[in-house]
Amino acid sequence: MSRELDRRRLLGRALAFGAASLLPGCDYDHLRHPDLADRALTAISRWNDRVQAALFDPRTLAPIYPASAITRPPRFNAFYDENQVRVVDGATWKLELSGLIADKRPWRLADLRAAPQESQITRLICVEGWRVIGQWGGVPLGWFLRRIGADLRARYVSFHCADGYYESIDMESALHPQTILALDFLGKPLTPPFGFPLRLRIPTKLGFKNPKSVVALGVTNVFPGGYWVAQGYNWFSGS
What we know:
Strand content: 15-25%
Number of strands: 10
Oligomer: single chain
Number of helices: 6
Structural class: alpha+beta
């Protein structure tokens, strides 16, 4: 058995033990102290994040699928109905940059189109349990971060969207070779329901970690949180 496999099994057992050690008193004590269960569950969530981060291998790729496996029709997902999608004007749109970045000049759509492009057919897994396979194309986020002189030693990359959504990922996941700033979906430019003009596509994480209609990107050592994380979801949320 390899040392790496030993490490992963040990961490897996530690996760189970850590969760179990926090739970026994919850069912009884929360009746008298409602906030106690919340604090315990928050501690478990943070423990899960740390263990998932420790298990993450930046060299391991998410599965790649053939074109015949693409889900048709594609499935819309957001925290609102499709008829409430905010339409962004691509002619005036720009990606604002902030934080630990040397060159903070905003990028326009034409700038991103002129950058190196990659395409992938990967699976998006929703925290609700459903999954779809799609084809996304765009700029590798690792390339982009190096191009703008981002501090690659920083802990987080954050994203803010035109619809008010926000999310963040760890730097190691940002540099993963399959993490892209997607401009295309199913071989064509993104449409508003699927994140026009720019979305994050990160197949190593759950669907809500793939923010759409991104308008700002930041690099920071201060935990940026996320829309669903603020409501109790695990932050790391690897798929």
